[in-house]
Amino acid sequence: MRSLNAAATVGAERDEAIRRAVGREAERRERDLASLTAQCDALVRSSSEVRYMINADWSVLAQLSGGGFIPDTSGGNANWLEEYIPEEHRDLVRAEIDRAIRAKDTYHIEHKVNRVDGTTGWALSRAVPLFDEHGEIMNWMGAASDITDRKASEHAQRVLNEELAHRMKNTLAMVQAITTQTLRQAASLEEGRVAIAARLSALARAQDILTQANFAAADIRTVVAAALAPHQGAAERIVVEGRRIDLASQQALGLSLAIHELATNAMKYGALSNDEGRVSITWGLVEGVLTFDWIESGGPLVVDPPRRGFGSRLIEQIVGAYFDGEGRIDFEPGGIRFRLTGKPSSS
Q1: Residue from 93, 55, 52, 99 nearest 74 by CA
Q2: How far is CA 232 from CA 130, 179, 220, 237, in A?
Q3: Cβ-proximal residues to 153 (8 Å cutoff; 6+ apart), any chain
Q4: Domain 48-146 annotated CATH 3.50.50.60
Q5: Which tens digits make up the pLDDT trace of 123-137?
Q6: pTM for this structure?
Q7: In terms of CATH, what superfamily is 152-342?
Q8: How far apart are CA 34 and CA 83, in angstroms?
Q9: What angle do CA 232, 174, 312 make, to 5 degrees?
Q10: Residue 139 and residue 62 in contact, taking contact as beta carbons nearer than 8 Å
């Protein structure tokens, strides 16, 4: 009897030891699971603003932590698609859901989203399926990041590229016109080469101004100064006066070419071809209308030419069109006068 009691005692002690060991192992595993869960949660929170859980067929959003980006959901939400996704992107989201479910694959998409503040933003959303023991999807765990700023930057870059391409085409068209018309009227290839080089240099100086201004706008004072730079020898006889007015890119290019043509003609035949002549350059803006004047005085007697050359047509027709206005040259005996009227795009 005594031996039976001893055996029972040993058995009980062994069972207790096993229970304690199992309990310690269970506690260890619970701690490990809690630690892994915390690490997983920290990883998600450090890499995204939104965390969510949704059922197998994506019909009910179980819970969502929006992180201040989109509204939270703590209970089942069967209207999540209408509440969170703008109508224009709902079909995109539905298509990706269908694909992910059929393939039992990661849901991954960039889409617009309705934000907490009532505005529309962009989210990068990823969700992975959780499977049961039979390999069927039980639910999905997902995370999303606010990519609104990135999408805005990408859009701005596309707009900039399109604008640069447009301006490049306009510039090349202008270069083609300058080259073709100059060669057509040149008395020799050398004369044409020199004239083309000078006109393209004027174009390049204006382009430099636009590049420094990020192609947004160019101050007319800077455009005038750059166009007159090759004629610094006569700077003391050129009076420039006018307020700051911003010009669009094509307007800056056109005005630069006009000033180049006027200054070149003045140096060769007009007010800057002698020692007494003067040039007055003034401009102003009244009720949104720009008036730009080039007035020569004190130079040789001016005779109205029987035929207008490319330079004159460029000044009057092309430049005037850039300002949706008019350019006019008057060959008055006392000196050439040019007036440009129009509307700068920034006014």
Answers
A1: 52
A2: 77, 26, 18, 10
A3: none
A4: no
A5: 999 999 999 889 999
A6: 0.55
A7: Histidine kinase-like ATPase, C-terminal domain (3.30.565.10)
A8: 33
A9: 60
A10: yes
